[in-house]
Amino acid sequence: MPYADLQKHLTNLEEKNLLVRIRRPINKDTELHPLFRWQFRGGLPESARKAFYFENVVDSGGRHYTIPVVIGALGASPAIYEIAMGCPIDEIPQRWQHALHHPIEPVIVDDGPVHEIVLTGAALDEERGGLLQLPIPISTPGFDNAPYTTCSHFFTKDPETGIRNQGNYRGQLKGQRVIGLQAPAWQDVAKHWEKCRIQGKPLPAALVIGAPPIVSHCTVLKAPFGVDELGIASALAGEPIRLVRCKTVELEVPMDAEIVVEGFVRTDFLEPEGPFGESHGYIHPRTLSPVMEVTAITMKRRPVYATFMSQMTPNESSSSRRTGFEAYYLNHLRQDLGIKSVVKVSMHEKLTNLRKLIIVQMKKPAESEVWRALHGVANFQPGVGKFIIAVDEDIDPRNMDAVWWAMCYRSKPHKDVLILPGRVKGHSPPFKHEDRLAAEDSAMLINAILKEPFPPISLPKREYMERAKQIWEELEFPALNPEPPWFGYSLGDWDEEWEEEAEMAVTNRYLETGEKLAKRRVKT
Ligand SMILES: Cc1cc2nc3c(=O)[nH]c(=O)nc-3n(C[C@H](O)[C@H](O)[C@H](O)COP(=O)(O)O)c2cc1C
Ligand SMILES: [Mn+2]
Question: In the chain, N or C terminus with fewer CB closer than 10 Å?
């Protein structure tokens, strides 16, 4: 199967009843994101989430847009993410790992649908033309200071090596031909920008809105600097991504992208940008950022405008990034650091946003391996890992009740907690015009792994719970969703006599046990 462009992907979603069309007029500045937000704040299960496709988009100025808007199409839920990635969710971690190590070079073709419409020069200056013809929504009405592109992939090249980079960075709509680019110094585009600034020239850029979903997912991936995310996307697609050359900048973009905004990011000044709602759950105040001056807009004859819902987690971006992010850390611990007892890395998503609370699930690790794994997570990327907890294989790292259970009984804080000072603060408030790489934070590593044999879990053995489940189903009680632990099992501290007594108890021989114990009375 060739990889899908965005519109083919939308058809796939619709066929699986994962996309809803909204035909009534919707105001992109005040109604669009809040309507979609209810899927994440309305107490609905993750599996009920769908992509929303707005056919009739208007704005607060009373204008109507010809371009429809889709939100949530890339990762509103695991089911949607799976379709965007073209493979079942449990295969995604292995696919990511394989793709990271076996990139495929994209190919450049002569022409593609993204060039069906090419607007340059005076065409961009027509009334309500340029960027103003795009239905860019406001993500957090009431706090954001403008519409921002959010599914907003900036394609640039390293001015020294020519290596491509694609990153998803928001763009504040500032004028008909001016859009912001917000990316802190550690982001790859900021490194390209800085090299251009030193050379005294602007940074050529192409802002891609609505790429083939496999490409979109790679633009939000934190690959090492110098790695072309299109190589990873091609490997994930199993074939080279097809690119076309841009019209006014020396860059290449997917031939079947929906909309591309070409231009030059100025390096001779910065400008205020924001406030904007952020994924750490707070509004990020105004900072200084570069702007891009637009030289061309190209698009399909009938493009679809794609927007991500970010801000408070869970959101579309956390839901879709989690799988790749976790696989990246798992790979680091198992492959780079060789800690084979690591089974899973789980990044807590709701409200906390993946980066701060990380659980490492391990299978019978030696104590030194636990600490190496915890330090390994702490030291992989700046600002990632504030509370890092190692748990055993029987603890479901997605279930925070289970994680707290492990911490409460399998750790002793005076021995099993290590506090690391001098940590980068990263993505979090408050913001006092601080240098985010210099601001100090700290991290807590918690070893909640069993250190000695424990008695069994106090639940009926598996066979009894399974039998009871059958009866439950025969009785047509409400469907169960088993939550580990849902049966008892040994953790090492259990002997043959107790096992035998338990066996006798369920086969109606407990009175024999009573007689046996009577022979062992102890005088008081
Ligand atoms: C919806 C969404 C919005 C994002 N906005 C920004 C942003 O405005 N600035 C930024 O630096 N990173 C942003 N990110 C994160 C980057 O896309 C991510 O760090 C990516 O790895 C950057 O690419 P790079 O590693 O090539 O620099 C956003 C991610 C998502 C999913
Ligand atoms: Mn990159």
Answer: C
> How far is Cα 100 from Cα 82, in angstroms, rounded to an integer?
18
Note whether 488 and 480 are within 8 A (CB): no
Question: Average pLDDT in the 77-105 region?
Answer: 90
Q: State whether the beta carbon of 187 lies less than 6 angstroms from ligand 1.
A: yes
Return the best residue to mutate from 100, 187, 232 for the ligand 1 pocket (most ligand atoms within 8 A of CB): 187
pLDDT in tens, 266-322: 999 999 999 999 999 999 999 999 999 999 999 999 999 999 999 999 998 888 888
Whether residue 437 has pLDDT greater than 70: no
Q: Considering the chain, what percentage of its residues have pLDDT values greater than 70?
A: 99
Cα separation of 3 and 237, whole Å? 6
- Helix H or strand E encompassing 210: none
Pocket test for ligand 1, best of 40, 164, 179, 220 (most atoms within 8 A of CB): 220
Residue nearest to atom 6 of ligand 1 (CA): 169
In the block, residue with structure tokens 């190496």: 372
Note the pTM of the prediction, 2 decimals: 0.90
Q: Which ligand is nearest to the CA of 170?
A: 1
Residue 183 Cβ contacting ligand 1 at under 6 Å: yes
Handedness of CA 281, 282, 283, 285 (dihedral sign): negative
Cα(398)–Cα(314) distance, integer angstroms:
14
Indicate the pLDDT class of residue 433, thresholds 50, 70 and 90: low
